[in-house]
Amino acid sequence: MEQCLCNKGYYNARSAANNSVECALCPVGSACVEAGTSLASLPLKVGYYRTGSDSDDLRRCPDAGVDSGCVGGVSGGEGPCRQGLEGPYCQVCEVRDDSVYYNAKESSCMPCEGNALLTVLVVVGGCAGVAGLLSLWMRLRHRLPLRVIAMAGWLWRLYTQLSLRAKIKQMMSFYQVATRITEVYDLELPGAVVRLLESFDIININIEALGLPLQCLGLGSYGHSLAFTMFAPLLLAAAYALYHLAWPCVEALLARDPRCLRRGRPKEQLMAALPGLLVLSFLVFPMVSSAAFRAFSCEGFSNGRSFLRADYAIECGTADHRLVQSIAWLGILLYPVGISVVYAVLLLAARPALVQEKPTALSKALGFLVRDFDVQFMWWELLMAWRQLWLVGFAVLIAPGSVQQLVISFLVSLVYMLICAVAMPFKDKVRVGLGLGLGLGLRLGLGLATTLTQP
Questions:
Q1: Of 291, 318, 294, which is closest to residue 306 (Cα–Cα)?
Q2: Is 394 within 8 Å of 291 (Cβ atoms)?
């Protein structure tokens, strides 16, 4: 048996303990350049991974390329991985504390240097400063010089005449889905396309898009990211509502009026805060929904173990996995379910005023949801939200990376576009055309991805 060797391009598929030879064609991802290759000595190309030397299941790493953490070659265990890396696709640091963090761009574990907390605080402070300046502008805009007020008025009229709000909403809806394509559908896109989509990822209010080394603060896991993604918008909404409730009292104190509680009515102040809260819900709905649904997407390997696609450091079925699933269920109840219910209740409450064209405080506050649509289609924003929910949420549960997943999402996009073309819900035909164009672009993207994933 020692003289029986497999030729170049083939390997012995039997294990060494079997003491027999069964030559099989070397699988994709291997580099059988010499005769006598066995399963244990099967050399891998750079960018490919397997769970151990007894596995013939070779998988392409997400970061496949010259600088991939999957370094190729022969290894006695999993991988082969770059030094300091381990786990599925070599994307987990061997040292799992706040002394190092995994850098996806470098495909390696980097030491935590400098003050990561200071970096985070600078970013958060910058965002708070911008929000403060915008609030100050809204409150003090009438006290500015007349020329500035006139210029601002002209720009606002131009913004309104061009219907930029509706167009910006549709474009943001498109990019909110487009920037999630790679992770939801497990696609390998060209580097230039990936970099372009990453540049728009900030639209999703994604803290990871800022490139902050959160692992250096002990906050780099999927569970921490999901918790932040879920609770940060709630804190922002609460702060925004409290700001509107407290502002009359602040004005009274500045005016030295002791009757601060009489300067504003809570119901009116909350109604004034409602448009901003609706904008915030529009921005975070797809982001949180997508993040929550990813808690239920696991990838199985040949060794019988499965790991969470969102974080390969979490093994499915373990206590850590059950914890993040509990957080995810809460996120699903608060966002996909909660926001949909709130939208429906508000629209039903404002329906008589909208149909009879007798504006009330509530119908005016719902302008962000209904202003761009004909009255009979006042609920269209809810339909658009559920289309996004399918494309970046439910789609995660349908065999990620498979043709079936792409085909189903392709059909969902096609049906929505056909309904939009027939119903014509927008008041302006230009908006309808833009919506159809963006829908067509998304559908073509999914169709092209479907073609590329076929063997």
A1: 318
A2: no
158-161 long-range contacts, Cβ below 8 Å, gap at least 24? none
Number of domains in the chain: 1
Residue 184 falls inside a structural domain: yes
- DSSP secondary structure string for all residues of 202-228: GGGT-GGGGT--GGGGT--SHHHHHHH
pTM tops 0.70, yes or no: yes
Q: Beta partners for 398?
A: none
Torsion of CA 173, 174, 177, 180, to 10 degrees: -120
In a domain, 437, yes or no: yes
DSSP per-residue string spanning 115-139:
-HHHHHHHHHHHHHHHHHHHHHHHH
Specify the DSSP class assigned to residue 106.
T
- The number of residues in the chain equals 455
Using alpha carbons, select from 169, 219, 81, 171 the residue that is nearest to residue 373: 169
Task: Return d(Cα 393, Cα 177) in angstroms, integer.
Answer: 10
In contact, 215 and 101? CB cutoff 8 Å: yes
Residue ranges making up the domain that contains 341: 169-203+278-453
Report the DSSP beta bridge partners of residue 102.
Answer: 109
Indicate whether 340 belongs to any domain: yes
The verdict on residue 109 lying in a domain is: no
Alpha-carbon torsion angle 56, 57, 59, 65, nearest 10: 0
CB distance 376 to 399 below 8 Å: no
Three-state DSSP class for 424? Answer: coil
CA within 13 Å, CB half, 420: 27
pLDDT band at 1 (very low <50, low <70, confident <90, very high): very low
CA dist., res. 159 & res. 435, Å (int) = 19
Residue of 220, 236, 218, 231 lying closest to 127 (CA atoms): 236
Can you tell me whether residue 369 is helix, strand or coil?
A: helix
Q: Dump pLDDT digits (tens) for 210-263.
A: 555 667 766 678 888 888 888 888 988 998 888 888 777 766 666 666 655 555
